[in-house]
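ugh ok so i messed up the first submission bc i forgot one of the chains. this is the corrected input, ALL of the components this time, i swear. 179 residues overall. if the numbers dont match what u have on ur side tell me asap before i send this to the collaborators (the ones from the other lab, u know who)
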Amino acid sequence: MGIPYLFERRGNVSLIVGLLVSVTIGTLALIIAEDIADIGIALGAFLGGLIAGRFTVKPLNGGSRGAAVGVLSLLLYYFFIVPALYMARLITIPEVEPSTLELIVAWIVTILELVGVGFVGGVAGYYTTIGVKPAMKPTPEAKPTIPSLSRCPRCGASLPVDAIYCPQCGFKVREVRPV
Ligand SMILES: [Zn+2]
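and heres the new structure output, hopefully the right one now
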């Protein structure tokens, strides 16, 4: 449990790739079809979450990474992408200034949308790789050849005595050899 799986190395790569996919689709939607950009942004967050949720060993881990893609996408939109698009005149400034309350509501909706969609994408991403997860492969005719480690060298999770793969991050913690 906890945070380590979020920052596990393979997870970081999928998180970054997922984030790039998310904001690329959303940015294209903003440029091409501003009126329905929300759909493009949500679609981007879903696909980004899907990518980020791969290689996880639990559905909630995938969902957490997907939600992280949603949050990071939102920060990129807010601080970089939308201001840059305004400056480049690729999106328009609304003629009627929305009220503070409208802005707050819009932001809450956007946050919930991106986090929720990213989470669902991440859980879906977990299920896309369930068949190829190394931890899922039974190894009944294998025995350890080096002593077991008490902690995973990658994520630090404590390991069962007979663990071959880390139950937390899927890292192979022992070599195995057929009997
Ligand atoms: Zn581990």
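quick check: The mean pLDDT is 82. that seems consistent at least. Strands lie at 142-144, 176-178.
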